[in-house]
Amino acid sequence: MVSEEKYKIEDFNEWFNDIIYKAELADIRYNIKGLVVFRPWSVFSISYMFRVYEDKFNETGHQQLILPTLIPEENFLKESEHVEGFSPEVFWVTQHGNENFENKYALRPTSETAFYYMFSYWLKSYKDLPLKTYQRANVFRYESKATKPFIRGREFYWYESHNIFETLEDAEEQVLEDMQITEEMLHDTFGIPFIFFKRPQWDKFPGAINTYAADVILPNGKILQLPSTHLLGTKFTETFNVKFKDRDEKEKFAFGTCYGPAISRIYGGMIGVHGDCNGLRLPFELAPIQIIILPLYFSDADNQKIEEMCLDIAENLDKIGYRVKIDDDKEKTPKERFSYYEMKGVPLRIEIGPKDIFQGTITVFRRDFNEKIKIYIADIYDEIKKISLEFTNNLKKQADLEFSEKIVTVDNYNDLLEILDKENKIIRVPFCSIEDGKECADKIKFDTKGADIRGIRMDFDENPDENDTCVVCGKKANCIVYIGKSY
Ligand SMILES: [Zn+2]
């Protein structure tokens, strides 16, 4: 495997593919391009992510639905920006057996046009609002960019939440709640740092008033967009005639939002953010095996005693509720077993050899700091509890530090070009406007071969100084933006 940390930065693609293969996360040999098979090790963590997200949706008053995978073309055609935005990526179902359908059906690339179709039947009165719904779904998009397991597939797995409200203010509140949910899930639970941006007008979801999205920075300095939330206003409610009778007896269109955390992609981002040159590192709660116990055999040792001790500790840890496994494969050297579980991202490894029996200790290798510690047998359960409780937070702190080091503030165009060309960094810079500064954005994109204005940050107000000017056109700056290249 990779010997140096810089490998991850300079050849992230190779590093990523290597981990997918060696940690047995996905199999790319399925015979439709862009569709891959997720293997048990990744599915376990992805299922956990789905569960905690589901709890959070329920806790915040969302109701779960299940809608059909197929969406009639006529639903799509109703919203012109939406159809224009998604058309190139839609998979169409045109036949049953040998016969053509009279009208074709889309394999959902997203389900606004299915939800709003139904909302028009369900919504009658202001008393029905807010209506907050979500579904767990797989969606299909014919990506023209190179596909990559978890990060960019032609089929992916997500929650899509579709909500309607009485007022625009209520809908805007929902955007803030979606941001809060993202913080609690991605950052607090999975340890993935991000910035939530309001996207420029020229880069919004087809059919939205505004798009907000969480950007994660990968080790190679490229940006991965994770959940986005969209303020739809009355765009879809007018199109699908989703009206309610208000308190004043007047009929009004509801205001909509949608939020789409792609769980499979969040998992892909997590691999990148937490992984290191020895492989995967998983937050403690997400690891299929949390503690691996390895008996170290020696020809002249009392191996039976070592095995008994391993069994005893495993049973006790299992009773406490940890996911534990003993690997006593005598065919493999200790080193082979060490690197295998490090590659898989198992948080803790307990090694027990003859010396330990003699000294009344065990050796614990912790994957958050990649260090070995000795623990007295008497303290083992307290110590493991302590480590397990701080483990994910340690990964998060390391990721936060790396994240902050990747953002550089500049105030002139030459520095911007030079840094985007040579370093794995995200630029923070004064800019004219995310409403109508597209020309400046286009120039940056052209001169840097692909860097985009990601938007203005939503987590706190960030204003340019009185005399700040746009680094491109020299006009008075009215915002601070972040610029980087997408992965
Ligand atoms: Zn400008």
What's the structural blueprint in terms of helices and strands?
Blueprint: H1 5-10, H2 12-22, E1 26-27, E2 37-38, H3 40-59, E3 63-64, E4 70-72, H4 73-77, H5 80-86, E5 91-96, E6 99-107, H6 112-122, E7 131-140, E8 155-165, H7 168-189, E9 195-198, E10 210-217, E11 223-233, H8 235-239, E12 243-245, E13 251-253, E14 255-259, H9 263-274, E15 291-295, H10 303-320, E16 324-326, H11 334-344, E17 348-352, H12 354-359, E18 361-366, E19 371-376, H13 380-405, E20 407-409, H14 413-422, E21 426-431, H15 438-447, E22 452-457, E23 479-484
Parallel strand pairs: 3-7, 15-16, 15-17, 20-21
Antiparallel strand pairs: 1-2, 4-6, 5-6, 7-8, 8-14, 9-10, 9-22, 10-11, 11-14, 12-13, 17-18, 18-19, 21-23, 22-23
The structure holds zinc ion (ZN).
Residues 432, 437, 440, 470, 472-473, 475 line the site of zinc ion.
Keywords:
26% strand, 487 residues, alpha+beta, binds zinc ion, 3 domains, BirA Bifunctional Protein, domain 2, Translation Initiation Factor IF3, globular
Main sheet characteristics: 11 strands, mixed
CATH superfamily of the largest domain: Bira Bifunctional Protein, Domain 2
| CATH structural fold name of the largest domain | BirA Bifunctional Protein, domain 2
List how many beta strands DSSP finds: 23
Bound molecules: zinc ion
Summarize the structure.
The chain is of the alpha+beta class and 487 residues long. Helix content is 37%, strand content 26%. The protein has an eleven-stranded mixed beta sheet with strand order 3-7-8-14-11-10-9-22-23-21-20. Strands 16-15-17-18-19 form a five-stranded mixed beta sheet, with helices on both faces.
